[in-house]
Amino acid sequence: MTVLVNGTPIEFFSTFRGLRQGNPLSPYLFVLTMEAFSSLILRAEKKCFIRGFKVMGRSGEGASISHLLFVDDTFLFCEDNRNHLVFWKWVVIYFEVVSDLKINLQKSEIIPIG
């Protein structure tokens, strides 16, 4: 592996281990990865495969919320619609394949509201 420093490659070096918890780069890589996940969700939302919920402000303006990312938690919102749940499943599977990260289903849950 090599790294560019000021546009110039430095000497090659070998890697023995990946990043581990506590590494100063870990939070930044997590943010970059979640940004890619967020972009994937927004693309699916623009194509009307999934739809979040609308939050109205005092002035009557609203914002659509399909997901929230906080530290290492992700909240996904959708209508009570089987098709939307299926598309959410495919978005998550696609993200797993592309990022090589796995969703821990034992720590995941679906909470119906309303």
TrEMBL record:
Coiled coil: none annotated. SUPFAM superfamilies: DNA/RNA polymerases. This is Reverse transcriptase domain-containing protein. The lineage of its organism: Eukaryota, Viridiplantae, Streptophyta, Embryophyta, Tracheophyta. It comes from Vitis vinifera (Grape). Residues 1-114 form the Reverse transcriptase domain. InterPro entries: DNA/RNA_pol_sf, RT_dom.
